[in-house]
Specification:
By secondary structure, the protein is of the alpha+beta class. The protein is about 30% helix and about 30% strand. The protein starts with 5 loop residues before the first helix and ends with a strand. GO terms for molecular function: acyltransferase activity, transferring groups other than amino-acyl groups.
Length: about 150
Amino acid sequence: MNTSDLEAAAEIHKLTFVRQKQSYEWLQCNFNAFPRVLCFVAENNDKQISGFIIWTQKSGFRPEVILEIEQLAVSPDHQGKGIGRGLITQTLPLVKERLAQNDSVLKHIYVTTRADNFAQNLYKSTLGAEVEATISNLYSADEVLMVARNVG
């Protein structure tokens, strides 16, 4: 993600996370948190942004990193076309390269999502993530914590 991508990514954020507000400011502060937070976008053939992913290192810079998929969003017009899967599979090697520059390796990946979100299937099939816990009524509904272990 570049600064010039923030506006288009914010539109996608606004459309996909309808209960959240201040989409541009949210993405901008995450973007500015580099290298703790790594942000990437997906572009279609017309160089239009169709999705984004935010990876966040948790609990300090460590030799073995616990990484969170903070957010993954695909424009409603482009959902169901493999863009979310591509965002994970194509950016994860870039994230690992960045971690290696800090003499770190990836240990686990976790993600939280609504218990009724079909994205659970994506996290399971792409990363091998499994539901470890359900937290009732956390944000707008029950939330599941999924962990992909030993993915480094």
